[in-house]
Amino acid sequence: MYIDNSLKRQPTAAQTDILDKMTADVRSPRNSAVSFRMQDVLVMTPFSEEYDLFLFMEDDYAPFKTGKKSFTELRLAAQEAALKKCEVYPRVTLELIYDIFEKLSGISPSGKEQLMQRECELIEYFSFPRQCGKTLFREAKAQGKRTIIFSESVYPSDVVKNILEKCGYGSYDGLVIVSEIKKCTAESWYDAVLAKAGVSADKLLHIGSSVAYDIELPIVKGAKALLLAPAIQLMEKSGRILGYIRKKHFYSYDSTKYLTLHCVLGLYAAYGFDLPQNREALSDFCGDPCLIGFLGAGAASLEQANPAKKYKMRPVIAEALTHDEKFLDGLDDFNKMLEDHFGSNLEKYGSEGCSGFLDFLDECCASADRKFFVPYMSTSALKTWASSVKEPEIVPFSGRNHKESSLNRLADKMFPPGTKVRNIADGILAKGHKKSR
């Protein structure tokens, strides 16, 4: 079994069991070829939001900026317009996105080319292998099976190949870049993968991250399939942390001042959920003290606490985090991953919001997570903590949506989502929108 030994935290027994079962499926003599989705299965980025890479490009865009909109807003708008033009995502290319971006932003053709090149450089730089996917890929190669990789990336083929080479996947037997398939539909990519594999469908095992396109589609075609859910998705469902953080910074979460916070969550997903693991009852950290140390001791150390705020248990919690060996392992792993993936690239963005993980422990720490602090707190302190914790107020919100308009932001402030007045207003607006179409 291949495990990343550079970190102190090692997979749990449950995670190891899941990997063993997936490896056995790859090893099965019923399969003579294995295909892998590149994104999320073989390759990851250390981001928690889809637009984080674009936030890194705001400074690159500054010399070309002609209006009030940010690079991130325009880049997302161009991508959405490209998708509408192509009708299906597999046909969208980076070149098409930037052709639209050029028109939306008013920049020169040379400026467009520079930004497009810069984005390619950044995606290559930040991409890294998902260790679980790499283990399965290596097992397929060790068993002499044909290995096919397919990519739905918008990036050119040379960029895709560079990323695969950098991440240690240069020995694949076939590569399918979906955007290069003429008249590709959301389903026809599988035919190209099957052709590259050179085997009948019942001899092909496909490993992907989408239930609809990586599981249901191959099975309908007669193949076998394994689901390896994205680490970000697994992290989001593991507890209440991401919802708490997004709610805490609801109105400006998509700004550059929270970029470091986004990246911390991206690293946390890779740290705890590269190998799938299920949520544990009454725990937001899957019953793993290393995960508590990673965010509570590691990420929170980036930002000094606000001295004006009155905390209930936070000083005691912070002190306890400096004693337990597993907490400290999480701290060490956090510092290593932050340096390995970002170096000094985050320094100019600050670390606003990173102390919010201690706020979460203070305000909302679940009982199964509080138990790790028992040896380091007095009985009275533990009782005070247990009586003060509460369920976090989570407003349904996806940080992967486009930036809200100023009108929507104002509406959120005046009439919070979910209130009776807001629901009535949204209903009226929805009816008006339908009539205008």
From the structure above, extract its key features:
about 425 residues, alpha/beta, 4 domains, five-stranded parallel sheet, two-stranded antiparallel sheet, 21 helices, disordered C terminus
Characterization of the model:
This protein has 437 residues and is of the alpha/beta class. It has 4 domains: 30-45 and 127-228, HAD superfamily/HAD-like (Rossmann fold, 3-Layer(aba) Sandwich); 52-126; 233-388, no CATH class; 406-436, no CATH class. Helices cover 51% and strands 6% of the residues. The strands form 2 sheets. The protein has a 5-stranded parallel β-sheet with strand order 5-4-1-6-7, sandwiched between helices. Helix 5 (94-105) packs across helix 6, helix 11 crosses helix 13 (259-273) and helix 13 (259-273) crosses helix 16. The chain is globular. The chain starts with 12 loop residues before the first helix and ends with a helix. Mean pLDDT is 88; it is low at 395-437.
Helix-strand layout with pairing:
Elements: H1 13-27, E1 33-37, E2 43-44, H2 52-55, H3 58-61, H4 71-86, H5 94-105, H6 109-126, E3 128-129, H7 131-142, E4 146-151, H8 157-166, E5 174-177, H9 189-197, E6 204-208, H10 211-220, E7 224-227, H11 231-237, H12 241-248, H13 259-273, H14 289-298, H15 314-320, H16 325-342, H17 356-364, H18 367-370, H19 379-388, H20 406-414, H21 420-436
Parallel strand pairs: 1-4, 1-6, 4-5, 6-7
Antiparallel strand pairs: 2-3
